[in-house]
Amino acid sequence: xxxxxxxxxxxxxxxxxxxxxxxxxxxxxxxxxxxxxxxxxxxxxxxxxxxxxxxxxxxxxxxxxxxxxxxxxxxxxxxxxxxxxxxxxxxxxxxxxxxxxxxxxxxxxxxxxxxxxxxxxxxxxxxxxxxxxxxxxxxxxxxxxxxxxxxxxxxxxxxxxxxxxxxxxxxxxxxxxxxxxxxxxxxxxxxxxxxxxxxxxx
Length: 202
Known about the structure:
5 helices, Elongation Factor Tu (Ef-tu), domain 3, alpha+beta, six-stranded antiparallel β-barrel, six-stranded antiparallel beta barrel
């Protein structure tokens, strides 16, 4: 589990595809690596991946086609900036909201509005997921816990503060880009349960 508070921006150092597996090397700081062990789960732009190896300033992961088809990892090139978060430890603080690292879809940036030092993003989702969007609810965007603003059918707006822009790759997003979207599981559970109860009652 993760909290959606990005600890560091890494960058893609190397990509190698072999036997339907993409091996990913991400450069990051010694400070981030020191507490990471082989076999640990790390949020890579919101995707829960398992550490396969590490050095003093890099960590390595493998991604299979199922992951590549459902996330923006398939778009990575050397130099791409990556949001990183290590998994939560028992007793640790949760600064954002609980996230599993399981991406529901890649959503599309439809508008980018720069307002002083802040940025608003308008994001479009597939129709099947739009019912889980609620104003002031939570979503995960590239592993960042973000509060939802206005909603208009399949589109929603988020307001990104300067600190989040500085410390994550959300500041790099432009019109037409894709982001990893994880919806709030509590919202999904409540919505689906309510719909089922109403169907049963009818």
